[in-house]
Design brief:
This protein is α+β, with helices and mostly antiparallel strands. The chain is built from 6 helices and 16 strands. The protein has 2 domains: 142 residues, no CATH class; 87 residues, no CATH class. α3 packs antiparallel against α5. This is DUF4846 domain-containing protein.
């Protein structure tokens, strides 16, 4: 759950049944599609607006083009995430304003819950989980800090778990429908017993020059932090890449697109310069080798 504090190692009393690449070429600028109803199932019916998506609000910088993304892929799904209106402040899970309102360029139209759970790594898990849920709910699974794999399929089929001291035991629970409300309760359990360390173990290292949408800048540990790459644009002449990055933080808060820097007019496209040893974001500095990708 926490960005800066590790949860103790846990032992799970059941087993879940789960079973150098070429960088993609720049793709054409894309217009927002009319999304299928199940793309962003947390939104109330009729709320999705194509003019309030990531793609619509953040065109590529001059001289850059968005990299290609296959329809139905995680990258494509992220590209059309819904945003709240321009000027929306970032709020904490309590409804209070985040202390710093100078670090975000936009706020995702995504609930944060009422508890202090959906922090940095949890917000990445949330979006990855929502994408998988929209494609196939039975594909959703995440690891706890202990390393044990917990599948949504098991959860809704009647297999829960509980923490007893330093142990985690399987416990029966009611069989439920694989709907979004049940999925959100499952995610809250994952948020409670996962964090930057467990998430970092789910990712394979990727060289910074090969960054793609859906990759994660992450430092697993205490302290730790995680930032999700929402989109990537390439400068054709130089191959330089800029990215839109999103984060939650501590305490749990609305996920937001971060600013590229403190300079007025810096915008949101962050240059990921492979010649530099660090990737600087408004509230965290990552090493260049701290980029990972979901398998």
């Amino acid at each position: 759950m926490m960005c800066a504090v590790l949860l103790p190692s846990l032992v799970l009393g059941f087993t879940t049944l789960f079973p150098t690449f070429d960088a993609p070429a720049p793709g054409p600028r894309v217009a927002a599609p009319a999304p299928p109803p199940n793309w962003y199932p947390w939104l109330p019916a009729g709320r999705y607006q194509t003019r309030q998506t990531l793609a619509a609000r953040f065109p590529p910088p001059p001289g850059y083009e968005r990299i290609g993304a296959q329809p139905g892929s995680f990258a494509y799904w992220l590209r059309f995430l819904p945003l709240l209106p321009v000027g929306t402040p970032v709020r904490l899970h309590s409804g209070q304003l985040k202390d710093r309102q100078d670090v975000h360029a936009a706020v995702l139209d995504l609930d944060v819950g009422k508890r202090d759970l959906q922090q940095c790594a949890d917000a990445v898990i949330r979006l990855r989980g929502e994408y998988l849920f929209s494609q196939n709910p039975d594909a959703v699974h995440f690891h706890l800090t202990s390393g044990h794999d917990v599948a949504f399929r098991d959860w809704y089929s009647g297999m829960g778990f509980r923490v007893v001291g330093a142990q985690v035991e399987a416990v029966p629970k009611a069989v439920e429908k694989a709907d979004h409300a049940v999925f959100r309760r499952y995610l809250d359990q994952i948020f409670t017993y996962a964090g930057t360390l467990s998430l970092s173990r789910e990712l394979r290292p990727v060289p910074l020059p090969q960054v793609e949408p859906g990759d994660v800048l992450i430092r697993g540990g205490s302290p730790g932090h995680a930032v999700l790459v929402l989109d990537v644009a390439v400068e054709a002449q130089t191959g330089r890449r800029k990215a839109l990055l999103a984060q939650s933080y501590m305490p749990a808060q609305q996920m937001h697109v971060v600013k590229a820097g403190p300079r007025a007019g810096a915008g949101a496209w962050v240059l990921l310069d492979p010649a530099r040893d660090e990737v600087i974001t408004p509230e965290w500095t990552f090493r260049r080798d701290e980029l990972g990708r979901f398998e």
